[in-house]
Model the fold of this input.
Amino acid sequence: MPQKRRNNSLRLPDYDYSQSGGYYVTVCTHEKARFLGNIVDGVVQLSDIGKIVEDVWLGLPDHYYHLRLGDYAVMPNHIHAIMMLVDDEIALTSVGTDLSSTLTNPNHTNDSSKNSRPLKRHTISEIMRAFKSYSTLGVKRHLDLDNIKLWQRGFYDHIIRNVDDHRRIQQYIHDNPLKWESDDYYEV
Done:
């Protein structure tokens, strides 16, 4: 009898992960392999894979109109990052799209986007799934690593609750390279 795939989601069951707010995420490489770089004297030195991953991360707002990126750290085997989903009015104003026609006409496309697709609010899970796919594809294409499995299944998320929580997470992200050898993800 075939075994069912486990679906132990860490997401809150009734929470709308497409709503505006701040989110802290951590995503690990497959088997916590140190694909992404090294840390020397508290400074991250990205590998070629790490550079591709960082470029994909920084390019996400080009594909998700309501996504803003905050502090992040690409570590040797994981990434810590703050993501903000903003209200449609703020997001569309900042990309120069006419809000009234966009939100009332379901066939309207965002002319400022490269692909002219209808606007859709994506969840954190959808964005993270795309990040993992795009970065893996980029590594396979640019570095000719066809058989690489780059990411672990799933990711950790935390809904940022207030300014103090946000500051604490920012400090953790900034300090993470300095504390690499005592990090939970550090494995010899």
Remarks:
- Residues 21-103+120-180 form a domain with the Alpha-Beta Plaits fold (CATH 3.30.70.1290).
- The first strand starts at residue 21 and ends at 28.
- Helices lie at 48-59, 88-94, 99-104, 124-143, 163-175.
